[in-house]
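Ops channel
N.P.: pipeline sanity check, posting one input/output pair.
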């Protein structure tokens, strides 16, 4: 038998469920599709090349174009954080064709309209981080971020607790954005 910090005897691990510890927990149920199916991409695989080969639901794709597609970010800054990616595996914007850049722009505009409709957002952060040195998490495949913003989405959680509060599950966000996407 062991004792906790207050001297309470603990006989097995099942009694420790409510014992506070120093760990922050971020629940990510959307990752189970990769774990259960054994399809977690390896470090050498590009998730933006893999996504279009999967179903829209599994890959969190909300719209597919001819040269590019739109999907939810698995690690969003805010609910509804979308990415616009060309199908072609290119790292930098200046390597995209005129057709790819035109479609990325058009999909971005549509995404903004749809996000305003389904989430009543008040603004957006749009951006592309080009290369690792510029902060790109996946530097080898071009992608543009579309982050919806609200006046009330800022708080001290990320600063003090290193935690981002997200009020919706990714599957629910994907379903609402995909349903509102024009045909």
């Amino acid at each position: 038998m062991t004792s906790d910090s207050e001297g309470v005897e603990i006989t097995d691990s099942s009694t420790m469920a409510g014992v506070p510890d120093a760990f922050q927990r971020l629940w990510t149920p959307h990752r189970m599709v990769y774990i259960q199916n054994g399809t977690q991409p390896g470090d050498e695989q590009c998730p933006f090349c893999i996504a279009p080969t999967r179903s829209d639901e599994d890959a969190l794709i909300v719209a597919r174009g001819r040269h590019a597609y739109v999907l939810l970010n698995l690690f969003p800054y805010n609910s509804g954080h979308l990415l616009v990616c060309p199908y072609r595996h290119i790292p930098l914007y200046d390597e995209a064709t005129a057709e790819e850049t035109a479609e990325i722009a058009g999909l971005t505009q549509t995404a903004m309209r749809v996000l305003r409709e389904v989430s009543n957002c008040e603004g957006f952060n749009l951006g592309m981080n080009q290369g690792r040195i510029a902060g790109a998490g996946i530097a080898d495949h071009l992608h543009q971020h579309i982050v919806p913003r609200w006046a009330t989405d800022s708080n001290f959680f990320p600063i003090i607790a290193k935690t981002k509060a997200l009020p919706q599950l990714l599957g629910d966000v994907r379903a609402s954005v995909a349903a509102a996407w024009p045909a």
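N.P.: looks fine end to end. The longest helix spans residues 98-119.
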